[in-house]
Amino acid sequence: MNMLLLNVLYLILHMASSSRHETVVTLVPNVLVVKVDQKVFTETQVPLRCGDYQDTEVIWRNGEERLENKGNQINVEVVEMMGGNYSCHNAAGDYLNHTLVLVQDIPSPNRTRRVLEKSHDTDKDEYIRCLSKNYSGIFHCSWKKTEYRMSAAVVFVQVDRTISCSVDSDGEGLTCQDRDSCPFAEELSRIKLTVYFRTNYLLEDYTITPFYIREIVKPDKIDITKVEGNTFQWRYPATWSRPCPYFPLTFRVKVVQHEASCDSKEKVLISETNINATEFTVRSSYKKYCFCLGAKDDLVDSQWSQWTRHEVKNKPKKH
Description:
The chain is mostly beta strands. 7% of the residues lie in helices and 45% in strands.
């Protein structure tokens, strides 16, 4: 009697758990996503359709394995995270169509992330970082895969506005362009971007906090064009938006001890910001030091460029 009650209880719990996660959605043509709760055991019936082959004998395969199911439309069972790559063929074995079935954990605050590492370049809880060199509408997003998911690949990029994106050849980022962008016009809406990654049949999506181009703009490193004694001259980066008076930059200078890092906070000899000129003279008697130069958009609260570093070794004067 106790065994019967246990079996009935298991069946009720199993049916209850199954009813919470029976969600199948289309990500892109030929790609279905089964959304499940990984905290419970799941079995999901997924309908597959080969196409318009009502009068054709249709056989199905999952990879190299032939299925017993036949017909233009069948149901396959997806157990927990075990998706599949299903293809349909005619009686002669000729390929007709395919459906890739991926499995995704239902979003929750405590869900485990497996594909990407958190970015260490920002205080925000982000996995993908986007930057733009100017206001042309082109920006680049990058990420770092976890050690155990190096084979993860982008399967879909969802983005609004008139933006197109292409994945970098190394799979470590993507380049996007807003085709209707105008550098001289104010953006009316933030960019919303979600990247979907696949490892085997596991799917994970990463949504970036919506942003304006002006919030992610970061100039390239500055070119120091001339050094005479302790006087330095430079110019705007070639990649920065033109004309320069319409897109002004502000500069910062830091002079640190010889061989010290430009990011050093303890070996700083001189530090000045909000410099609008493209020339600076180090007025000191230092014989050896490092001159560090950075830039940012003067009109918005954006990011500083990487430091440009120049080592100075003044020869002692002869008496």
